[in-house]
Amino acid sequence: MSGATPPGTPLPLWRDRQFIRFWSAQTVSQFGDRVTELALPLIAVTALHASANEVAWLTALSWTPNLTAIVLGAWVDQRPRKRRLMVAADLARGLVLLSLPATYLAGAVTLGQLYAVALLTGTAAVLFNTSYSAFFAHLVPRTSYVDANSKLSTSRSASFVAGPAIGGALVQALGASVAVAADAASFLASAFLIGRIRTDEPPPSEAQPSVLRRAREGMAFVVRHPVLRATLGCAATVNFFTFISGTGLLVLFATRVLRLTAGGIGLALGVGASGALLGAVIAPRMSRRWGVGPSIAVGAVLFPASTAVAALAGGPLWVRGGALALAEFLAGIGVMFFDINLNSLQTSVIHDGIRSRVSGAYSTVNYGVRPIGATVGGVLATTVGLRPTLLLAAAGGTLSVLWLVFSPVLGIRTLALPRGPEAVST
């Protein structure tokens, strides 16, 4: 045997130049994001002395633009070049983030500016994500969906391992506002790499209904599809409760209750994030062993439940830091099992021509509950305290698995059948 690839067989992803460019773009921007996720709440807490409720609003505003995703996704479906929209979104996020170090040098950083940065970068993220689903479906062969999502999630997980430690060191050395420039640079690099990708994107059909009608069609498809309806309910429940605890409140809890330094928080989050790296690597193997649906269910429980480990932490400094790291480790494994399998399953059951509008409808609910959860988290943290709020988030999040128990999802084993409304095998 010559070992040559048979005609029509997809290239292995690590030999696919277009995928490598996309993977590289996602990897570099993910590492930059880890800096900003730590820096923005730290600017609010340390430089502007923000309250728990004000920190929660910062998280809420970054996700609020997802409430418009149903309309934006319907608009994106009409656009012939999703790649260009993704590049534009990356450039916009990079430029907005550069405003923070600029105003810091002028001594003019305000909480209002942080809110504006969160809102604008969140809006650009919605544009990127609604374009992403249709672009990904034609960049990667169907048989490689789980593998591609695993590779993308592995690099994302690696960013959670090294990113917080790097971010914490940058924040301590340069100040949080200046450290955000690293994320801005990462988006500019991502825009350059995605701009160089060449792949066929089918043009939208000539006869297109209005944007609002396409938006309604996207939501109707989600509601009527038994798999999408159940996974949306599960994901939205997970998101609501995990955002009650939110990154901002977790940083506030680690700072004021666990009394960890910025460097200590970054180190704990970075060490704990090795769980996400492990989860991303083993998710395809577990998916083959357990099945796609059961793997989603395992992640739906493990991801939110792990917050309780950090919430119950006490004792010496090393125990407090270790508990935060362990909580992140378990959450990382859970979220990778959940995301990799769920994203692959969704891609397999949505057909071409409606991907962006369905993605937008899905995101409106799934991500739209995040600012609501963050706002509720701020109110609860103010009224009952940080620790009880985190415990409530952990307990409520585990209930998300009930959506899957009463659906076809738990019976889904592989993604082997042709694409379509019932494109799964049991």
TrEMBL record:
Keywords: Cell membrane, Membrane, Transmembrane, Transmembrane helix. Coiled coil: none annotated. Residues 226-426 form the Major facilitator superfamily (MFS) profile domain. GO terms for molecular function: transmembrane transporter activity. It is found in: Cell membrane. PROSITE patterns: MFS. GO terms for cellular component: plasma membrane. The chain crosses the membrane at residues 55-75, 87-107, 113-135, 232-254, 260-283, 290-311, 317-338, 390-412. The keyword Cell membrane applies. The keyword Repeat does not apply. It is a multi-pass membrane protein. InterPro entries: MFS, MFS_dom, MFS_trans_sf. SUPFAM superfamilies: MFS general substrate transporter (SSF103473). Pfam families: MFS_1. It comes from the Bacteria. This is Predicted arabinose efflux permease, MFS family. It comes from Actinacidiphila paucisporea.
